[in-house]
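REVIEWER CHECKLIST
Item 1: Sequence provided? yes
Item 2: Single chain? yes
Item 3: Sequence as submitted:
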Amino acid sequence: MFFTIAFIVMATVMFYAFNVLTMNNSAEYTKRYAASSAEVLSAHIAKEIDVISIAAKSDDVMTWLADEFNEEKKEHAFIVLSSIVSQLYSYNLYIGIASSLNEYRVESGATAADIKPVAVLNANEPADVWFFNTVTSEKDYLISVNIDHLMQRKRVWLDYRIEHDGITLGVICTGLEFSHVAGELFSKYESNNMRGLIINKSGDIYMDSSLMKDNEFLHGEYIEAFGEVFSDPVMIDAVKTHQKEMDGYWRSSGDPELIRLSSGEHRFMTIAPIGLTDWSVIILSRSTTLSDTMYFLPVMIIVLILLVAFAILSSVTSYHILFKPLRKLEDSLSQLNEHSADGIYGAERDDELGHLSNTIQDLFNKANIDPLTGLYNRRFMDSNMERVMRLLSRSDGILSVLMLDIDFFKRFNDTYGHDEGDRCLQAVSNALSHSVLRVNDLVVRYGGEEFTVILPNTDKDGACFFAEKLLHSIRDLKILHEKNDAADFVTISIGVTTGKVGFNHDLSMFLKQADTALYTSKETGRNKYSYVDF
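Item 4: Structure as written out by the authors:
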């Protein structure tokens, strides 16, 4: 009888716990999906704004808009615009000029001679409302969804006002392909358990995951009001409250707001603002049903019994013998991958964990450490810097990269022999590694007599100061080098570059600029550093 009661109690607890867990997971997934969709669309728009604002603030573009029919000024403006077009998602843009109301279209592959008026903007034409709304708006740009009447495509539009000294010269406009954006945001909502929406400040539904196969929605002039599609008063009140909090465009994609619904087909609704717009993501979610819970109940009971038995028999010993040492090993491996650890935990042990630790250390060294100098190699730099570049791009950080070369090292080898050459490399490597003080800085043997120093979050002044420090450190070694045209002892030449890390940057771009600067140092006498902006 006791075991029967205990079994019933355990089954009831498990059923309740699983039901609660299902509800909580459903709520959490709803919030995550809303936040993810908001961030994806905001990132797309942010990229287009960054690119198109360059054209809007270009002196050449503004000069042309102020003197539209001057061919020379148009030529200069075209150079800027063609560069901008190549970076845009749609590879084309529109320009409306305030003084003449002429509309121009600039496409990838066009020439300056192709830039001619394609239409005259008319305030009474619905197709031209983008221009006049932007001109009269207090915002720098407007976001909307509409049909590209020239291309016959539905797009997410970005209209950016061009001003000079408080005078509106025109509007520059580009668009993201609507069907692609909708698919990227909502392709994961293929099941009936979730429904995703994008609404504007007025409550109009711009995107709806339930209509992803509807051609009119993807390509036509579909638009519906939220209150016409949904009748639940809780949902409608939540949307209205959310919209009242809006003051212009959202500065960023903030935390999603979760609303529990007591009726209807959906159990949860999450609203998340989309940064840089007055739009919001709405995710509707169903919770798991009772039948789903009952389906998993027998399996859960068996698993529970096995887990309890295992916990009673082995939890204490397994923790001290296995899990605690493995946790320490895991922590030391994480630090080792970030070049900030003194060694791997357990290397001094004389058991299986000790053998594992030493094997991992040996494999890591062979894969990532240059055997002659003890510095990290290019393989480690490439794999480690992928993570660093992502972190810097997200935090708007800067990166400085130094490329170093021992001056006339081939002559040194020819004069003193390769054994002395190796000792020279080791001495220079030791001086470089001792010059680096911060844990996130990285010194790499790039190849042969060439080295690389990576300095995250170091500005130009700091990088140049560090380069000068390295020059003195190597000179102070006083390693005799009779064949060095720059001095009587071993010296180095350095190339330095510094720049802000963007989302589309990779380390190779910085290395290329640093190598260009290094070439300048070699061509101008060596035993010095040269700087090139990234």
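Item 5: Key structural point noted by reviewer: The CA atoms of residues 481 and 502 lie 42 Å apart.
Item 6: Recommendation: ____
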